[in-house]
Specification:
The protein is α/β, with parallel strands linked by helices. The chain folds into 2 domains: 1-37 and 127-132 and 145-212, P-loop containing nucleotide triphosphate hydrolases (Rossmann fold, 3-Layer(aba) Sandwich), CATH 3.40.50.300; 55-125, no CATH class. It is built from 8 helices and 8 strands; from the N terminus they run βββαβαααβαβαββαα. Strands 4-5-6-3-7-8 form a 6-stranded mixed β-sheet, sandwiched between helices. A two-stranded antiparallel ribbon has the order 1-2. Helix 5 links the parallel strand 5 and strand 6 (160-165). Helix 2 (71-77) runs parallel beside helix 4 (110-122). The termini are far apart.
Length: 212
Amino acid sequence: MRYGAAVALDGVGISVERGEMVALVGANGAGKTTLLNALSGMLVPSAGRISCSGRIAHVPEGRELFSDLNVDDNLRIGAWKATSRDPSPVYELFPQLQPLAKRRAGGLSGGEQQMVAIGRALMAKPDLLAIDELSQGLAPNIVQEISRHLVKLNLETGLAVLLVEQNARLALDLCTRAYVLETGRIVEEGPSSRLREDPAVQRAYLGGHLVS
């Protein structure tokens, strides 16, 4: 993947199997968002190929809601290619959104907006949910709550999740397998339990301490 003469991604290969939760961690500028944009079809790779046996839905960095539309309308937009535009399953997953259905999305809190962004992606009935920076700008208790919903959804429906996240501690706790991306290349990959104990990963992303 190139931007002019600059190489943003170089020989990157990742896989997410059905029902898996996989993390992609790395510092700012590592190429995480570029990779996610390529996977979801927003960017065309200059080389290589992308193969997917199902539907991918993308939760973009910064949420990218339609701020002047209400919650209900934002959710229904996500189902523009689906056979059903009924947002009831999203309200069941995130009950706190139900009373906000007619509220303008731009007036919601950051956590509420993230729930709407995830819900909008789920309206497309994806096989893989790709989330860019789940925790960005959110309080830890809100991140924990949203994470709990995601794990529940994964366990109950088999939805695959690719979590692109700068917070490596969160990503490795949530996902069973992970990739570490540095300057456009995968430098580590494997079970999250092993990566949490890797000294290089600890120094670079976990503050130098083991995660219990």
